[in-house]
């Protein structure tokens, strides 16, 4: 793989730091008037999700990380692995529970997710920004209470629990923003 | 063609109007004090030898020339010609300095006071800032005091190995064999600057290894220091001043040392400015001088977090 120099660091670039793939979030040149230039770099460790800040001398290099975001269809979970397929090549990839991480509670079969591959192996899974899922468990709906605030927990078919308005019932399909875990609206009554 | 979105200025028209008023106010400040404005050349055959400042090269009639990184050398030639107190408000250029607080072309205010020392000049820096920010808190401390306060280490006496270890901890392995000056800069920028108080903080008595064009001396505790100061406005480096070196022989020695360091770091060679040396041989009056980043001053006054927001067109838009 090639190397990147600090002056090429920009948000989104994937590099290897201490053996782990990292995504650069921010790169700021620091240059005391009479002093040597260096770069304050914020990176997200793609394995742990942790954000760290490092200082590099201007001109220092990091190895590029073979990290690729690929749209894939979620197929099934066989108990140990979550199976994803590239829609164009039908190539299948097995993601560990670690890689699936927080996406777990949003995954329903056939959904298209972004699977991040590191050296060809799934490193992390990002669910669609919005998913439509059925409520499988919640307190009975309060009829007519469609306008006022107030909410209750509802368990969805994938296992996620979200706060929903009081009028919703079991069996209804709702739209949820997976980035915030917030209820967006009712899609349809079953 | 995303680049075409960049045709518009980075600053709003309201900001540009404030910028225009600020420039007028700066000129007014010096006019009231009867200091002469000088508009010295931006293009010269000579340039600075500083290890860490690179000039942008240009060409005139097939002769290599340089966009000036500050008006300092020309202003000193005027001082040596008995100009008396002078100021310059214009552009300066530094190669490859682009970032949130940097633009390769920026507006620099620089002024010299004959017969003054750096402490008198620090007073005037505070007065100038107060005309823009009345009642602003002003603090003064020596480099040693602020360094010891934050890092419990005396920057003048600590040995190089210990300094390098601290720098490696704050930065990366790349500092393991760095010079004293570069280690100090890293530690100051990363561990001290962000913790300075609000308002104007004037730090004086810089380490002798960072003297640049300041006189060197001993402080009250017998430590070798340079008579250089820096001003930080809300934790941002804003101004750099000296009790100016007037000794031509010492100046020639520092140029030679810069050239040695440039060679060591495999940087392009730069010739010493012989006309400056000739001026100093003829006699540079005792004086103190300071340079201040005007764009950064505007950033602080307007609460902008990027230099692009206070200038018509930053490098990204050029």
TrEMBL record, chain A:
It holds the Pfam family EFP_N. NCBIfam families: efp (TIGR00038), PRK00529.1 (NF001810). It comes from SAR92 clade bacterium H455. PROSITE patterns: EFP (PS01275). This is Elongation factor P. It comes from the Bacteria. HAMAP family: EF_P (MF_00141). The gene is efp. Keywords: Cytoplasm, Elongation factor, Hydroxylation, Protein biosynthesis. The keyword Lipid biosynthesis does not apply. May be beta-lysylated on the epsilon-amino group of Lys-34 by the combined action of EpmA and EpmB, and then hydroxylated on the C5 position of the same residue by EpmC (if this protein is present). Lysylation is critical for the stimulatory effect of EF-P on peptide-bond formation. The lysylation moiety may extend toward the peptidyltransferase center and stabilize the terminal 3-CCA end of the tRNA. Hydroxylation of the C5 position on Lys-34 may allow additional potential stabilizing hydrogen-bond interactions with the P-tRNA. Residues 69-123 form the Translation elongation factor P/YeiP central domain. One of its GO terms (molecular function) is translation elongation factor activity. The keyword Protein biosynthesis applies. Belongs to the elongation factor P family. Residues 131-186 form the Elongation factor P C-terminal domain.
